[in-house]
Write a structure and sequence with these properties.
By secondary structure, the protein is mainly β. The chain has one helix spanning about 5-20, and strands spanning about 50-55, 60-65, 70-80, 85-95, 100-105, 120-130, 130-135, 145-150, 155-165, 170-180.
Length: about 180
Amino acid sequence: MRSAHQIHSTTLGALVALALCLAMPAAAQEPSAAAPAAESLETVAWLAGTWEGALGDDPVTEAWFPPADGAMVGLFRWERGEKVYLYELMRLAETPDGLTLEIKHFGGDFKGWEEKDDAALFDLVEVTAQGQAIFAERGDEVEHTRVTYRQEGDDAMIATFEETRNGRPVLLTFRYRRGS
């Protein structure tokens, strides 16, 4: 049986291929050695709502429910042409160590990429006064995978997926506007 990390790494292969075509150069960043930032959901509550955007020519949509019971639940959809390429179910949760981001991936056929009880786990490592939250994948010492959400005023957001693969930085940048 493959581990969630192996499945996550394998399934990201398709994303990496696309990223190499679309990615902007980015400097590789070392994961933070500091303990996770101890922040509450109020730090990222601005995510609540629907966000519409694109990665290149591909439409993407992300939606987050407001905080409830120590968590926020989010959904992501990535379309290619007339078909859905990827769905994600996401949860931001308050834990004793800080905020954690969990992501479960599903193909366009809605078949899960991770094993039943597994998810990609990210810990909050930095929050800035400018409305940016940076999450680093737990136990990801080799790949240096990060997810960043950055607020751009009241109606815009940039979400990035960043990793180092084979010693080279890969960056996917999703630009969103608040939906109706």
